[in-house]
Design goal:
This protein is an alpha/beta fold. It is built from 11 helices and 16 strands. A 6-stranded parallel β-sheet has the order 2-1-3-4-5-12, with helices on both faces. The chain has a 6-stranded parallel β-sheet with strand order 10-9-8-6-7-16, sandwiched between helices. α1 crosses α9, α2 crosses α9 and α5 packs across α6. The longest helix has 17 residues. The chain is globular and about 55 Å long.
Length: 383
């Protein structure tokens, strides 16, 4: 309960002030537009219904949809909502426009006043449906769109945690070949920014290591994720990281007898012999704050973008699989990220073509990291 309250306080504080990005610029809308509309009308707590659209199955117990649903559960518990007030639509492919639209329409028909869409490609359908149902609040995870009326966006500086996971991977690898299963290619800034941050973390402790990227072109596909991991393992990678939704890459690493860094939730239970750590989200911080605002009538279409300092993201506890000294190094860097003395994308940075993409003394703003990053860091190799 204390952890939930801490997250809630951090989220409320971030909403209450004009937030700053890593370089001091406006960060509530790192890749979108700031809200122009007023607050939505209050909804009596007992009348409230919250809709959630998941790309996967939360009951899987690990991964992306599970992590989001744990945030919904934390919100429900904190605000004292009944089970009947939470309506979930699970296993909705975000590439299937008709299924996404149907899920939203069903949630509206069931009386939901606020709908959370948890996957990137729900964005355009949610934008359209927000116009169709102007009295319903649409809150979309990742992406970048905000209509200034009844649709906002929420995400965070997950690249901070990816940098830390890169440290764990860089200190563990023996082959100096680290695999990375990526949902999307370089044209998707959300994925690319994470790969680059991870590779930068690797290089900070191991200049000889390279990060090999294999793209699945799917956010959620157990088969493709495992096949990508197996291909990287066959090429000699002895650590497998990921930006995809399931535990499949970690299971592949364990089957091969090597190591891995998961994503979204602590995947140690799924692959105890392989897992090192994972960048994780504390989605309950946002869900609790947002739903509380809906009840109070203070919700506005303002984008949310939190980081480690706000308690919104972190890494899972390091396992005994990590190399000696990993905890101390990660603790050192983590403290600097939280107090602002270290910024992941600061200083001279080169891409894998040898171009200088950021000059000494400059900081790449969050908006560019999440919306304009179309290059790979110098130690990244695409397979």
């Amino acid at each position: 309960m204390k952890k939930i309250l801490a997250f809630l306080l951090a989220a409320v504080m971030l909403f209450a002030v004009a937030g700053c990005s890593q370089d001091g610029s406006d960060s509530k809308t790192p890749a979108g537009s700031q809200a122009s509309g007023g607050a939505m009308p209050a909804v009596a707590k007992d009348d409230l219904k919250v809709g959630v659209i998941h790309i996967g199955e939360p009951a899987d117990g690990a991964g992306y949809s599970y992590a989001h649903d744990q945030g919904i559960v934390a919100m429900q518990k904190e605000l004292g909502l009944k089970d009947s007030q939470i309506i979930r639509k699970n296993n909705i492919p975000d590439t299937d426009t008709s299924k996404t639209q149907n899920a939203i329409e069903e949630l509206v028909e069931e009386g939901c006043q606020v709908i959370f869409g948890t996957s990137f490609n729900y964005m355009n359908v949610m934008e359209q449906m927000a116009e169709t149902y102007p009295k319903v609040i649409f809150s979309h995870c990742s992406g970048y769109k905000n209509n200034g009326k009844n649709m906002n966006n929420y995400f965070g500086r997950i690249y901070q945690a990816r940098y830390l996971a890169g440290i764990a991977a860089g200190m563990k690898t023996q082959s100096n070949k680290i695999g990375y299963v990526a949902a999307m290619d370089v044209t998707n800034s959300e994925v690319t920014g994470g790969i680059n941050a991870f590779a930068m973390g690797v290089k900070s402790v191991n200049a000889d290591a390279r990060v090999y990227v294999k793209v699945t072109n799917n956010w959620f596909d157990v088969t493709k994720e495992k096949q990508a991991a197996e291909a990287l393992l066959a090429d000699g990678c002895d650590v497998i990281a990921q930006h995809c939704d399931t535990t499949a890459p970690q299971l592949a690493a364990q089957e091969k007898g090597v190591w891995g860094c998961g994503y979204n939730s602590d995947m140690t239970e799924s692959a105890p012999k392989a897992h090192l750590t994972a960048p994780i989200w504390h989605w309950g911080a946002y869900y609790t704050s947002a739903v509380k605002e809906v009840i109070e009538g203070t919700w506005k279409p303002v984008n949310y973008f939190g980081g480690m300092a706000e308690g919104f993201i972190d890494i899972s506890p390091l396992t005994a699989n990590c190399a000696e000294g990993t905890q101390a190094k990660i603790d050192e860097v983590s403290a600097k990220i939280k107090d602002g003395s270290f910024k992941v994308f600061e200083g001279e940075i080169k891409d894998n073509q040898g171009n200088i993409v950021n000059k000494a003394g400059d900081v790449i703003p969050d908006g560019d990291i999440t919306g304009k990053m179309n290059w790979y860091f110098e130690t990244v190799v695409v397979k």
